[in-house]
Recover the amino acids of this structure.
């Protein structure tokens, strides 16, 4: 195989040209002929089993050369990547066969070039929005987390017939919802089981249930603004028929609870409490740091000179559009239904995704520039520490994670991302 690379500066694109000839192409052509032959149907014979002379009449050069190109394309791309060209892809390539004959094949892989960036100052940034909060775990947060563990072993006991629903109880009930007196789709349920206070239902629903007795009653709620389009912000009335109220009895907060949970390296309640506390601190640290660093990145983008090719933005818009489609599908809606209810068109949705697409690309370019300037590189000790933490977290051997779940290359990338976040956090604000 032969390799050539060039830049299409006016288009902001690059091209890798791979020529396949010799034995590589001979083998691909032979493979293409066999593939076409195996799919040919001739009356009186099983698929691909007709005599060779009959099959050859149906095996045209267009068919088998096209099959040959398809069979060699991945190998050609892998070969191109191995050449370590200074013309680097910023997007997934579009492969195109430009010359194909019995003797050779020429493939072009066209891609967006990485946009040039003149990065602004990324250290010592100050702003009233850059506030570093304390990473602490409150007693209430620890109690809530431990109660989630206690829930696993909760016992349930029927309450008296005249008892009222209280927070923490389990209520089993039928319900049907109405907006403006009309039942709405998905608003009906039978023998629905709900732990009061679990926040499983829309805001206000569980609070309205508190104090209700067995039998029929009505509750009124307002759907959140970010709910499905047809119900967003609307007032609703639910007819409820409470069939059962159960008191939940949670286990004591003691060493027996810690043992029953069978968590790695936790045998006492104090160890459980400390572990939960550390988990909350770690989660807060990650969340608050990321929020802070995102603000830093926005400031760096604002002071940097970045010229993005339109093709790169459009490609990212399409990626975000697919993610948006998936979120709409999760609401049990088709895009056609969503657009009808909101009055939005495809063009309008893509227009609204433009800023997000641009920001995502700029964020990548900024962090990539910081990465290459500061030359982050994980040490062997950091890699081993990461594997050890994962092993302790999941209760499996570190080598098992390395070999079957997360190869070392992925772990390195994860550590580098963490190093960039820590660097931007520690050097700003």
């Amino acid at each position: 195989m032969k390799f050539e690379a060039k830049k299409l500066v006016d288009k902001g694109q690059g091209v890798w040209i791979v020529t396949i000839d010799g034995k590589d192409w001979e083998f691909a052509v032979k493979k293409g002929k066999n593939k076409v032959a195996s799919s040919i149907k001739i009356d009186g014979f099983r698929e691909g089993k007709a005599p060779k002379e009959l099959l050859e009449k149906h095996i045209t050069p267009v068919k088998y050369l096209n099959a040959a190109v398809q069979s060699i394309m991945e190998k050609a791309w892998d070969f191109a990547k191995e050449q370590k060209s200074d013309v680097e892809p910023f997007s997934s390539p579009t492969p195109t066969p430009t010359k194909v004959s019995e003797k050779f094949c020429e493939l072009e892989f066209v891609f967006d070039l990485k946009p040039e960036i003149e990065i602004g100052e990324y250290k010592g940034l100050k702003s009233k929005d850059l506030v570093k909060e304390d990473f602490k775990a409150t007693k209430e947060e620890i109690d809530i987390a431990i109660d989630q563990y206690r829930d696993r072993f909760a016992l349930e006991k029927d309450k008296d017939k005249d008892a009222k629903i209280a927070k923490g109880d389990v209520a089993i009930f039928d319900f049907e919802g109405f907006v403006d007196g009309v039942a709405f789709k998905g608003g009906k349920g039978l023998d629905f089981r709900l732990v009061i206070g679990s926040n499983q239902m829309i805001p206000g629903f569980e609070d309205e249930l508190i104090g209700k007795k067995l039998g029929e009653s009505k509750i009124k709620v307002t759907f959140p603004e970010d709910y499905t389009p047809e119900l967003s912000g609307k007032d609703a009335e639910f007819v409820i028929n409470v069939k059962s109220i159960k008191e939940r009895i949670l286990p004591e907060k003691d060493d027996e609870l810690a043992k029953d949970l069978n968590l790695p390296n936790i045998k006492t309640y104090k160890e459980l409490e400390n572990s939960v506390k550390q988990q909350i601190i770690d989660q807060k640290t990650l969340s608050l740091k990321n929020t802070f660093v995102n603000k830093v990145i926005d400031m760096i983008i604002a002071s940097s000179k970045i010229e993005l090719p339109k093709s790169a933005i459009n490609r990212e818009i399409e990626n975000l559009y697919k993610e948006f489609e998936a979120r709409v599908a999760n609401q049990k809606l088709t895009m056609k239904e969503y657009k009808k209810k909101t009055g939005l068109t495809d063009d309008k949705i893509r227009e609204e995704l433009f800023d997000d697409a641009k920001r995502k690309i700029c964020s990548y370019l900024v962090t990539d520039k910081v990465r290459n300037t500061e030359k982050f590189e994980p040490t062997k000790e950091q890699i081993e520490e990461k594997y050890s933490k994962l092993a302790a977290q999941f209760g499996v051997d570190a080598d098992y994670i390395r070999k079957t779940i997360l190869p070392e290359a992925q772990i390195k990338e994860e550590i580098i991302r963490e190093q960039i976040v820590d660097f931007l956090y520690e050097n700003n604000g």
Q: What stands out?
A: The domain at 2-114 is CATH 3.30.70.1050 (Alpha-Beta Plaits).
